[in-house]
Amino acid sequence: MNIFDTIYARKSVRSYTGNKISQSQMRQLLDAACASPIAVCRYENMHLTVVSDSVIMNAFEENDSRAKGQESHPFHGAPQMIVISVKPFESDLQNMEYANAGIVAENICLAATALGIGSCMIWGTFRRALANQELLDMLKLPEGFIPCGAVIVGETEEKFAPQKGRHCMKINSLGWTEEGKEINPFVNC
Ligand SMILES: Cc1cc2nc3c(=O)[nH]c(=O)nc-3n(C[C@H](O)[C@H](O)[C@H](O)COP(=O)(O)O)c2cc1C
């Protein structure tokens, strides 16, 4: 797949066979994650955790169910996840940390798509987990790191076909002129 096909084929997969991806596939996802741009080049403030242990996955799901007051399966049956953690510049998570984590997550999702692997970003579950130190300890993170979110991954029967225009955002344009008149040729996606 070329880069545009991969971008347009990427989608959130919420249906998994339960089979794990191979070690070499996981390595490729992690390499893609490490290739992400990171604010002020602080790669040392980023940490990735590969979770292939159903006990840990279940503990996060149970915490989510408790926090929401109803049964919750935020990992959609995926057998593995890559948790993206950051060491905050200050005491709390700020926009840079979330931006860094989001970019890493998207690189993982694009690489997964190129390999035909299912993936989906999971964020709210990790925000709800922040209040449960015992749960966070299961991730065995280095001192000072906080999880921002994760990408669940796994084998899927879903197919990946480029679907350009599946989503749309409103766009305005400033200073693009034609025959001296301001126009917005980008109004539709
Ligand atoms: C920051 C972020 C957090 C997300 N968290 C979740 C989540 O917790 N659970 C989930 O099923 N999808 C989650 N998603 C996936 C979005 O719902 C999905 O990207 C959106 O609906 C567009 O669909 P698509 O990814 O198939 O194009 C998240 C996406 C982002 C960018």
The CATH architecture category equals 3-Layer(aba) Sandwich
| Residues in helix, % | 25-40%
Mean pLDDT: 95
Number of helices, counting only DSSP H or I runs of 4 residues or more: 6
* The CATH C-level class name: Alpha Beta
- The name of the CATH topology is NADH Oxidase
Total DSSP E strands? 6
Strand fraction: 15-25%
What is the radius of gyration computed over CA atoms, rounded to a whole number of angstroms? 19 Å
Largest beta sheet: strand ordering: 1-2-4-3
State the end-to-end distance: 22 Å
Tell me about the biggest sheet?
A: 4 strands, antiparallel
Structural class computed from helices and strand pairing: alpha+beta
Tally of individual domains:
1
Per CATH, the superfamily is NADH Oxidase
* Shape verdict: globular
Any key phrases for this structure?
single chain; 189 residues; NADH Oxidase; two-stranded antiparallel ribbon; globular; binds flavin mononucleotide
List strands and helices in order, with pairings.
Elements: H1 3-9, H2 23-34, E1 46-51, H3 54-68, E2 80-86, H4 95-114, E3 118-122, H5 124-129, H6 133-137, E4 146-154, E5 177-178, E6 181-182
Antiparallel strand pairs: 1-2, 2-4, 3-4, 5-6
Helix pairs in contact: 2-4
Bound molecules: flavin mononucleotide (FMN).
Flavin mononucleotide binds next to strand 3 and helix 5.
Describe what you observe in this structure.
The chain has 189 residues and is α+β, with helices and mostly antiparallel strands. It has 6 helices and 6 strands. α2 packs across α4. The chain starts with a helix and ends in a 7-residue tail after the last strand.
